[in-house]
Specification:
By secondary structure, the protein is an alpha+beta fold. It has 2 domains: 252 residues, D-Maltodextrin-Binding Protein, domain 2 (3-Layer(aba) Sandwich), CATH 3.40.190; 232 residues, Dipeptide-binding Protein, domain 3 (Roll), CATH 3.10.105. The chain is built from 14 helices and 20 strands. The strands form 5 sheets. A 10-stranded mixed β-sheet has the order 7-8-9-1-10-18-11-17-15-16, sandwiched between helices. Helix 10 links the parallel strand 15 and strand 16. The radius of gyration is 23 Å and the shape is globular. It starts with a helix and ends with a strand.
Length: 533
């Protein structure tokens, strides 16, 4: 099968070589702050990998710049009104466009939808999140251009299944169905998708090169070639922007963005996304398995101080996993106030007494924790140092551990420390890729790794029940009440604690048109429409 795949890759390169006559011959030069670990939408985990999905793959649906669900491979978005969502809420029917092809020329059919579902649910595949697919009983394919999703029960988040993202974008059955698993195959480094751009080359540590797909079912992209560079150093990024080596620099570190100043020919831009920077407490590891210790750590620093000193005021405060700019946020809740005295009392109550060297001790054990996060983000580095300093003041000895992002977010089976539960406290950012507020993949017992993002390993039956109840009702008022209660539990029990809701900061050429950053998903959701003036 690997030889067959290699042959298919070569054929795809031949197809990709001459850009469409409709495409601008100029090259789109994009910079990202991380390098992906994979280009597979099945086993990927990074936000950067979700960005690259937009170039290479398609979903049944996608989200526009206002967060509206719009068709992609589907002819239309299923609704009750058009009859594609059954009245009992137990099935969703998708009618596929008939002109979509894989980059090797093979038509995209309903068999690919059924295979993608099987791949996401295959326990041999290192899939980070199986929700909402675990609520699907089966995918029926009555004909080549109809896929019918049969649900085990009515499930509101199911409408977000198979959208154009990690854990949703459609992959080719004819190339992958015979693989025993999809974890370490050639496809993951040189994929064949159905998206607007075809894969050309991946120069590790440097860049990925893509070419316009002349047969893209929504019309050939307007720019013929894309080079995506990985600039993980702030200084390198600053130089590249100031020397006009880039057309789009995406997800910039805030320090880079604020230090740039005015650059002729480049336009600074921020946009709000559901991107939450937070602490994850590993509730299975001492000493943070004790809620009093978690609470003390939160009282020991001021989130407003972090927002001002690290984020330069960019972003918003909200202590839970619901964006404070949305109607789902529980507005009765606020971040914990800075109160180191109360933090000390909580640690005293938990049996941790101050030692002569300024570190607390309990049963001859020092109060020592690890704070882990992905390397390469200077703002996260600064946040980590500030937390370490504040926690030292209350008698906590904090060691900082950093990892390359692809290692940090790797699945446990691949040695990932986060998914493997090897950290005490983790500092990271998650992005909510769809507007639906459900937190099933981070809050429920069923989402504890290896098949979920409950990286706090927190098992609370009430929280699991509430998340499932909220996802099973389409009524806003009922869902809102349930999510309000969920947030109350989150803030009380502290499996996670959100430090800030980030702004996405970009710099782009004033000659680049068509960029419409969204409030969910990726800046590149409509990259096929981008053009140069």
């Amino acid at each position: 099968m690997r030889k067959a795949l290699a042959g298919a890759f070569a054929f795809a390169l031949l197809l990709a070589a001459p850009p469409s006559s409709r495409a601008d011959e100029r090259e789109l030069r994009v910079a990202l702050t991380q390098e992906p670990g994979t280009l597979s939408p099945i086993v990927g985990t990074l936000a950067i990998e979700a960005d690259l999905v937009q170039f290479l793959f398609s979903g049944l649906t996608r989200y526009d710049d206002r967060g509206n669900q719009v068709p992609d491979l589907a002819v239309r978005v299923p609704t009750l009104a058009n009859g594609d969502i059954a009245r009992d809420g137990r099935s969703i029917t998708y009618h596929l466009v008939r002109n979509a092809k894989w980059h090797d020329g093979v038509p995209v059919t309903s068999a690919d939808i059924a295979f993608t579902f099987a791949a996401l649910m295959n326990p041999k595949n290192n899939v980070a999140v199986t929700s909402p697919y675990d609520k699907i009983a089966r995918v029926e394919t009555p004909d080549a251009y109809t896929a019918k999703i049969i649900l085990k029960q009515p499930w509101a988040p199911a409408i977000d299944a198979f959208s154009d993202r990690i854990g949703g974008a459609i992959v080719p059955a004819h190339l992958l169905a015979k693989e025993p698993d999809l974890n370490h195959i050639d496809f993951n480094a040189a994929p064949i998708g159905s998206g607007p751009y075809t894969f050309v080359a991946w120069h590790r540590g440097s860049d990925i090169v893509l070419a316009a797909n002349p047969s893209y079912f929504r019309g050939a992209p307007k720019i013929g070639r894309v080079v995506i560079r990985f600039l993980t150093s702030d200084n390198t990024m600053l130089i590249a922007i100031r020397s006009h080596e880039l057309d789009e620099a995406d997800r910039l570190n805030i320090s880079t963005f604020t230090n740039l100043g005015t650059v002729d020919g480049m336009l600074p831009a921020t946009n709000t996304q559901s991107f939450w920077e937070h602490l994850t407490f590993n509730t299975r590891r001492a000493p943070v398995d004790d809620r009093r210790v978690r609470l003390a750590l939160c009282y020991a620093f001021d989130v407003r101080d972090l927002l001002a000193k690290v984020s330069h005021g960019l972003g918003a405060l909200g202590p839970t996993n619901q964006n404070p700019r949305t109607p789902w946020y529980n507005r009765k809740l606020t971040s914990y106030p800075y109160d180191p005295v109360k933090a000390g009392r909580l640690l005293d109550d938990a049996g941790w007494k101050m030692g002569p060297d300024g570190v607390r001790v309990k049963a001859r054990q020092r109060l020592a924790i690890s704070l882990s996060f992905p390397a390469g983000n200077i703002n996260r580095d600064q946040t980590g140092v500030l937390l370490q300093q504040r926690w030292k003041q209350i008698g906590v000895d904090t060691s900082i551990k950093t990892y390359p992002p692809s290692t940090f977010f790797a699945q446990a089976a691949n040695g990932g420390p986060f998914y493997g539960g090897k950290n005490d406290v983790t500092l990271a950012a998650f992005v909510q890729a769809v507007p639906d507020p459900n937190g099933i993949s981070v809050n429920t017992a069923d989402a504890i790794p290896p098949h979920g993002n409950n990286l706090s390993f927190y098992d609370n039956p009430e929280l699991t029940r509430l998340e499932n109840d909220a996802a099973s009702t389409p009524v806003f008022a009922r869902r809102k009440a349930l999510y309000d209660r969920i947030q109350e539990i989150e803030l009380r029990e502290l499996p996670y604690y959100t430090l800030r809701w980030s702004e996405i900061t970009n710099m782009r050429s004033t000659h680049l048109d068509g960029v419409r950053p969204g409030i969910v998903g990726s800046t590149f959701w409509n990259v096929a429409d981008w053009t140069f003036r």
